[in-house]
Design a protein that fits this description.
499 residues; alpha+beta; Cytochrome Bc1 Complex, Chain D, domain 2; 3 domains; 13 helices; 15 strands; binds heme C
């Protein structure tokens, strides 16, 4: 079948004046990078951000229909499948799609899976993602992924960018020293208080990385996904479009290419992916019940809960949870840029081998916003007329963004009980990145596959490198255990209803 181009939709877009109301009639959902660039090139930074954020919000919630490319030609006439179908190998069917799929498509919208306790939140086990990473068609080699919430992820990318820069500087300084002295230079890799093991720089420019820990050998930190597989929000979002929705971005298939055999090409433009990226990266920060009560946004906490939370903080530290779940890190620079100003967190070439700059996606025309002052959600007008920007990240006394993530952004061996049947993208079956605990009080069930229905069960499933910590927890008094759970339940998501 010849792919249908998005002609009708594109014509409607260009004939609609930019930013004219109403912005998004049903057929006017898609945008272009050129529309964004018109604004950034004119120095209209705020307008560019607002335009992309609004468009991304619409795209996130939209139920994509077949005519827009929603779903894929799975085979046997199906458009969606909850179960990977490596067995369907006829032309255009599941196993022949490009890029190759390991899952889905299994939903019509992003919001289907990220909706608990409200939009942009986490998912239930019924929204788990079932993947066949090795395309075997053998159900004993399938893996399960639970949808996490998306709050605060812009800050995760920025932390990763800063840590990567620091770690690579440490490596490069060691290499320079090795060359200068003609001898091997062993160094410890440490960034933001997290140790990533050691490496040895050699005079001939080689680096021995066998003793690095919890990070890839290129020292590029990838904070996203349960196994820490993806570095940038953009890279994740466009893969989600393809894998979950069957909405293939032109930057992954190439122009005019119908990679999922559904008769539609160019399903999401470069601008659409920019919009989704901005919308995701500008999600508000998670909060705490203590904070919400102090602000009068929820009922006052009972004296017992207040005491438990304070005691739980001590138990969290004394049982060593905080070794991996580091309560907070600070950002030197809290300005998010799409595309990133850091070459390691933007595409030199798109997956389709096309040039992003030639397609309008250039760091010189980036959309930028500050995570500590510009986040659109949870802006609350109070009765006294003052405005509370609860969505923004808080700052320390030096103006640096505080990211209360409860993670070290590092992968750990979690032991045989949590290990899966297969490795995923080269990451060992027992390795998972320390899941951020911000918002954890709002997002049951827990762990990478949703096997833990309560926080207590989630703790009990820890093994491997976390075994000592969990044994300490098991040995704690009942009061201490309850206090620790109250401390975790204090970490919640909050979102003010949109009009
Ligand atoms: C079928 C359910 C489902 C749909 C639909 C879905 N997601 Fe997800 N999402 C998941 C699961 C499961 C994960 C965890 C994947 C992993 O870690 O391996 C995830 C992870 C994410 C993450 C990474 C969060 C983190 O901290 O690692 C982002 C961002 C995200 N999704 C955005 C989207 C966007 C944007 C869309 C729509 C284009 C979308 N999702 C559609 C289930 C879904
Ligand atoms: C060695 C590092 C490490 C230590 C120590 C550790 N954790 Fe974890 N934690 C992880 C990893 C990795 C995951 C994700 C595991 C998975 O995906 O299956 C996780 C997941 C969790 C989750 C589930 C989060 C979610 O959203 O599903 C909770 C709750 C949790 N940890 C609490 C704790 C508590 C409480 C302690 C101390 C008693 C602790 N952890 C100690 C590494 C650690």
């Amino acid at each position: 079948m010849q792919p249908v181009k998005r002609v009708a939709i594109a014509l409607l877009c260009t004939s609609t004046p930019l930013l004219a109301a109403p912005l998004f009639a049903a057929e006017d959902l898609f945008i272009t990078q050129a529309e964004i660039n018109q604004l950034t090139a004119a120095g209209k930074t705020q307008e560019a951000f607002d335009f992309a954020f609004e468009a991304g919000d619409e795209l996130f919630e939209h139920n994509f229909i077949a005519a827009q490319g929603g779903g894929a030609n799975v085979g046997n006439g199906q458009r969606f499948t909850l179960v990977p179908r490596a067995d369907l190998t006829t032309e255009g069917a599941w196993a022949t799609h490009f890029p190759a799929r390991s899952t889905g498509p299994n939903a019509q919208s992003c919001a289907t899976c990220h909706n608990l306790p409200f939009g942009d939140g986490a998912g239930d086990v019924s929204q788990n993602n079932i993947r066949d990473p090795e395309m075997t068609g053998d159900i004993s080699k399938f893996i399960n992924r639970q949808p996490p919430h998306i709050f605060g992820i812009g800050a995760l990318q920025l932390l990763a960018e800063e840590m990567t820069t620091e770690l690579q500087q440490q490596r490069d300084a060691a290499l320079a020293k090795a060359q200068e002295t003609g001898a091997d230079v062993p160094i410890s890799l440490v960034s933001k208080g997290v140790s990533f093991g050691t490496l040895i720089a050699q005079p001939d420019g080689f680096v021995i990385t066998s003793a690095i820990d919890g990070i890839d050998s290129d020292l590029v930190l990838k904070p996203l996904e349960w196994k820490g597989l993806t570095g940038s929000v953009r890279a994740f979002v466009r893969d989600a479009g393809h894998n979950e929705l069957g909405m293939q971005a032109v930057e992954i298939t190439g122009p005019g290419q119908d990679g999922d055999g559904d008769g539609v090409a160019d399903e999401l433009s470069v601008g659409d992916i920019t919009a989704l990226t901005i919308y995701q990266a500008a999600q508000p920060r998670p909060v705490t019940r203590v904070e919400l009560a102090r602000l009068g946004l929820i009922e006052a906490l009972s004296a017992r809960e207040t005491t438990q939370i304070a005691r739980g903080a001590q138990v969290f530290a004394s049982t060593g949870c905080n070794v991996c779940h580091i309560p907070q890190m600070t950002l030197e620079n809290s300005v998010y840029s799409e595309p990133s100003q850091n070459a390691l967190y933007r595409d030199a070439l798109f997956p389709a081998k096309t040039d992003p700059v030639a397609l309008g996606l250039s760091p010189a025309l980036a959309i930028t916003f500050d995570l500590t002052s510009d986040l659109p959600d949870n802006v609350i007008e109070r009765q006294d007329g003052s405005v509370l920007r609860l969505g923004d990240f808080q700052t320390d006394d030096q103006g640096r963004g505080i990211v209360a993530l409860f993670s070290d952004l590092k992968r750990h061996d979690m032991g045989p009980a949590l290990a899966e049947a297969v490795a995923e993208k080269g990451i060992a079956a027992n390795q998972f990145i320390t899941q951020e605990l911000w918002g954890v009080g709002s997002t049951p069930p827990y762990m990478h596959d949703g096997r833990a229905t309560t926080l207590g069960e989630a703790i009990a499933w820890h093994g491997g490198e976390a075994a000592a910590s969990v044994n300490d927890f098991r040995a704690a008094s009942v009061e201490d255990k309850l206090a620790l759970i109250a401390y975790l339940e204090n970490l919640v998501l909050y979102k003010v209803e949109e009009d």
